[in-house]
Amino acid sequence: MKVILTEKITKLGNIGDAVEVKTGYARNYLLPNNKAMRYTKENVALFEAKKAELVARHENAKKAAESKVDAVKKAKLHMIRQAGDTGQLYGSVSSRDIARELKEVAGVSVESSQVLLGAPIKSVGAFDTKIALHPDVVVDVKIYVAQSQDEIDALVAGKKLVFGTKKVEEEATEDKAEEIKEEKAEEKPAEEAKAE
């Protein structure tokens, strides 16, 4: 289906571009959200009449997005989640969670579709992502995911969290030391009984 874009859409085109898109994408997203109009002679004339207004609206939206850049950059996106011994999360951190956290921490409302995360975060650590406040205004942010505030502080300081084998080995050596102490404690009464 051929449509005329009424706003800039990343990876598709700018205002006024006539582009060919899949019918479902046009019917389910572009047309209902007023991001495009069907390509007809009447709509081309209508678009030309409204072009100045649409460009002005685009510039105003861009300025509004640019005013939020500092707030987003300064936001501390710290997520405390439960995780296993290997650092794998029980569940995940999605773009919806990041959008919610950004609103709570920085007071900036964004849609989850504006969080350019890619795949959900499924482990503890520090992650880089981008927030698209506007198609022309994209901000890099860092997200810290850990099990406690102490772990987040360590991640922010640049330290690496250790999970899995070392932690399991430490627990195993502590358990072994306990078993040895218990065995020695049991052997003493048996030796005393033999001596009598």
* SS content category: alpha+beta
Give me the number of helical elements: 6
Mean residue pLDDT:
82
Helix content: 40-55%
What's the CATH class label of the largest domain? Alpha Beta
Task: Give me the strand/helix succession.
Answer: EEHEHHEEHEEEEHH
Indicate the overall shape.
elongated
How big a fraction of the residues is strand? 15-25%
Biggest sheet: strand arrangement: 4-9-8-6
Distance between the termini: 100 Å
User: How many domains is the backbone divided into?
Assistant: 2
Please describe what this structure looks like:
With 196 residues, the chain is α+β, with helices and mostly antiparallel strands. It folds into two domains: 2-66, Ribosomal Protein L9, domain 1; 70-167, Ribosomal Protein L9, domain 2, CATH 3.10.430. It has six helices and nine strands, in the order ββαβααββαββββαα. The protein has helices at 23-30, 41-67, 69-74, 95-106, 149-156, 165-195, and strands at 2-5, 18-20, 36-38, 77-80, 88-93, 115-116, 121-123, 125-134, 137-146. The protein has a four-stranded mixed beta sheet with strand order 4-9-8-6, with helices on both faces. Strands 2-1-3 form a three-stranded antiparallel beta sheet, covered by helices on one side. A two-stranded antiparallel sheet has the order 5-7. The termini are far apart.
